[in-house]
Design a protein that fits this description.
The protein is α+β, with helices and mostly antiparallel strands and about 270 residues long. The chain is built from five helices and 16 strands. The two termini are about 20 Å apart.
Length: about 270
């Protein structure tokens, strides 16, 4: 794939969404690869977690889990299985920490961590600073902010070309038994207004919508993804017994992956 090298999202935009697979990384990585996503090589974080990324020119998807041996990251072990991480881009973790404090959200201080990345035959350290809001304030899943210190080791052209045409993240739907109160909390944490939309609320995070709707329990319920077209993904999903694919016309479909408690609303990019 050729073109200008992409960069980290702007401050306050969506950085990435996390799927927690705990100790089932091999099965999750195999499933997403068969579905036609191009996964980055497995990463090993200094905090005790492992990951694969599915990159776009903007926000990306992350599979995160814990290794079989060695240190195991406790916040990953304690967080919900499946879709569970909403990560907002920060260009200055210290400024983000100060903003959250001013908004009444007692976020912890910025945490620095890294993982080795091998590109062009050399190994370097991808480095990050994250600011995490208290987990108890957002029971649906983790919400945190991420400053990329080495974005050139994350957004690389060779990782953007997906066989299934994956090209972006459209929306994250969050169910809540108290959607109005939760919408205010998410708006304060993200730094963007919540707008009433039917029985729920919508918050714009860059080009992505965070949609908070009524539900019996707090959870990240569905993720909307963009593809260049749906035919390539359909051919792969329809051949997998562990996937359920329902087409809703030429430009929309639902993909369900029960083994990882995932509902993906798939749309053809306009």
């Amino acid at each position: 794939m050729t073109g200008p090298t992409p960069a980290a999202p702007a401050d306050g935009a969506l950085d990435h969404v996390v799927i927690n697979v705990l100790r089932r990384m091999d099965g999750a990585a195999d499933l997403f690869a068969v579905l036609g996503f191009r996964l980055t090589p497995r990463g090993h974080h200094s905090l005790g977690s492992i990951n694969h990324l599915m990159m776009t020119a903007g926000p990306y998807l992350e599979l995160v889990g814990v290794p079989e041996m060695g240190p195991q990251r406790q916040d990953v072990l304690d967080s919900p299985f499946g879709l569970n991480g909403l990560v907002v881009a920060s260009r200055d973790a210290d400024a983000t920490h100060a903003r959250l404090a001013a908004a009444g959200l007692a976020a912890g201080p910025p945490v620095v961590f890294s993982r080795p990345v091998t590109v062009d035959g050399r190994t370097e350290q991808a480095q990050f600073r994250t600011v995490r809001v208290p987990a108890g304030r957002f029971p649906a899943g983790r919400l945190y902010h991420c400053e990329h210190l080495t974005p050139d080791l994350v957004w690389r052209l060779e990782w953007l070309d997906h066989p299934n045409g994956f090209s972006g993240i459209d929306a994250l739907t969050i169910e809540s038994p108290a959607p109005e109160a939760d919408a205010s909390l998410y708006a304060a944490a993200i730094g963007a207004p919540a707008e009433a939309a039917g029985a729920g609320f919508t918050i714009r995070v860059g080009e992505t919508r965070i949609v908070i709707v009524p539900g019996p329990a707090a959870r990240f319920a569905a993720l909307g993804l963009h593809f260049r077209g749906l035919d390539a993904l359909e051919a792969r999903a329809a051949a997998l017994p562990e996937a359920t694919w329902v087409r809703h016309g030429p430009d929309a479909a639902d993909l369900t992956l029960p083994a990882f408690d995932l509902h993906l609303a798939c749309r053809a990019a306009l």
